[in-house]
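User: Predict the complex.
Assistant: Input components as received:
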Amino acid sequence: MGNPISSLELNKPGALKKVLLKVLLYVVVIDICLVILYPYFVMFCNALKTRPEIFSMEGTVFPIKAVWNNFKEIWTLAPMGRYFLNSILISGGSTIIAMICGIPAAYALARMKFKGHTAFLGFVIVSQMFAPVVLLIGIYKVMSLLGLTNTILGLVFINAAFNQAFTIWLLRGTFLSIPAEMEQAATVDGCNRLQAMFKILLPVAAPGIVTTLIFIFINAWNEFTVALTLISTETLKPLTVGITIFNGYNIIEWQYLFASSLFAIVPVVILFMCIEKNLTSGLTAGGVKG
Amino acid sequence: MKKRKTLQTAEPYLWILPSIILMCIFIVIPIFYVFKMSLSDISKAGVIKGFAGLDNFIAVFKSPVFGIVLKNTVIWTVLVVLLSTILGFILALLLNNNFKGRKIARAIVVFPWATTLVVQATVWKFIINTDYGALNTLLMKLGVIQSAVNWTPTPEAFFAWEIACGIFVTIPFVCFTVLSGLQSIDSSFYEAATVDGANYWQKLFNITIPLVKPSLTVSTVLNIIYVFNSFPIVWTITKGDPANRTDTIVTYLYKLAFYNGKQDVAAAVSVVGFAILLVCASLYMISTLKKEDA
């Protein structure tokens, strides 16, 4: 790939300078990576220590003896299985609802002209300004009226709603990048709009749809504040709120807290790595076109 | 025939209807309630007792704490957004070079972005702990320091660490948005500039920065909103304590509403928060519109 900065940075002025710059680049990048990985390193090492070792005056970087049992014990000390299941239900449910509502809306914005087109797009963008935390009091009120406080379904709807903006934004960008001619050709061949969408547009847009889907799943998985406020029953909590069970007012069980945290983040980090490239280009592309 | 035409004009609205219903119930109605509650007198149990006019707002602005909270929020938002934008931009320039292991570096940078904030904040809370924190242990083992350092002697120091944590988790988003902007720049621009004898910095300021500006704008605007509304970092590390010295608007209103049973005052704080965000957003819109005219 043509790489502008590198080719210009390492261009002509002598081979020595070129090598030095390369070495410098490596040193800086490696240092940054080490800093980024440091918290994860700390988490992992301390998840394998015993409680006395963590609190010992001496202090250790690596565990004296790795206590793998910590990873097993958290499943009996806390309803980790339930937390996991709840997180999956909340994230899965909100992803499905966000897509069911978002795909048609994004399609309409990308393919149809109608009165209020711009107003709707504006509404979508403005809705991003309101993070759930500022609206918590109002959300709590609405949830009580609907009988959805302390339910997983309530969190599903909240996460779906607050991710609508991103869903529509990303999908609209994807749909706009696909020429409408293909669907028109299908319409000439006797397909109606819905058939053309399902048979032509959605398969072509699949990479963009998958990216959006995973992004919303991750957002919902990582959500903390609303779940903290709406859920009071231990067995209904998602992982993000559930693991704080080890972070009590007086005693913090760091080893368990870190062991359970690792369970909460690893699947998501892997998922995120898969979509990162598509996601960022989608976000900015939407921005430029909007 | 006429019926068909009505159906055709109505069709787009049917497509956007589910989305509108979802957002109305769970975003618009809560907004309405927040405004209504900010103007009401509410009992500790959450029952609306009557209209209170601007009493709640007066209570907010009369509170000696609110000044600190507001100042903290501004410092928090400005520093986190500004520094993470600069650092994220530099990191993107670095990662845009061709080198071995670039894919691995990119994958590592994803980590803080994908990690839920509670976990990230919890680890940092552990790292900076004076008595058994990982940072002291590490530095002592490396021989950099002799005895444990108190990294958080004052509330301000705590707040500074919270800001650092905020920057840490925000950099990846900026980095990747800029990176995608950088990669869409046509390399012929640089080739032409090289022919004209431009040096690295000239190319950076005359080609790179203007061309990634749209990406930077997107990430900055989104970041202002996110960072302003960010709750888990401050909540996990200090809960806004001691004595509100590390509170931002969101942690302050959370405590008012769900710890102190002052939902009406909390609603007023929410409304003030909206107002500030709205001003930021409009300033941004005005400035972009102006530039497009010019």
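The first helix of chain B runs from residue 2 to 38.
Let me know if you want any component modeled separately.
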